[in-house]
Amino acid sequence: xxxEDREALWRVLEARRDHRHFRxxxxxxxxxxxxxxxxxxxxxxxxxxxxxxxxxxxxxxxxTVYDSFAGVRxxxxxxxxGERRALYSTLKLEGIRxxxxxxxxxxxxxxxxxxxxxxxxxxxxxxxxxxITLAWLAATAEGLGLGWxxxxxxxxxxxxxxxxxxxxPLAYLCLGHPAxxxxxxxxxxxxxxxxxxxxxxxxx
Length: 204
Fold this sequence. Notes:
Blueprint: H1 3-15, H2 29-36, H3 38-41, E1 51-56, H4 59-77, H5 82-90, E2 101-107, H6 123-141, E3 145-149, H7 154-161, E4 168-176, H8 186-189
């Protein structure tokens, strides 16, 4: 690849953020399809492609997902004490209602043995996460923001969206035009955590 290709890739990597603040204007369909196309080129163990994506644009459905989030958030806040809990209460941790598009990425269990999973069957789920990462970078390249909401109950999402019984939701992703220009991770900006250097050693 050309040096400019490498430089462009690193600009996207450095610009990627976990967005929680969104504008409500719609996402262009062509851009959305390009982002979804990242799943076509994503790697997967045994070429299994064990994912299914549900696009959620209906506001009532997004509200139902938000209700699940609100309940989980209230429970999680109880895990922290003192100043940590006070700071937690100020954090915005999702953009479910503002972001015009929600993407539910579900794990699809294989119906037969999958090459490469004998000693590490979780590689199937890792493959789904890998595909999500590529979609995240594609969204960044499109000038859009994407945020992963981990504080939702998979069962509630499954029921609310009427997903097929064999699908197991792994991620709810908010997608839209970012309302904030983030130059560093938001949790670092608000003082919740800081990025650490890579833990690394060598075996030469």
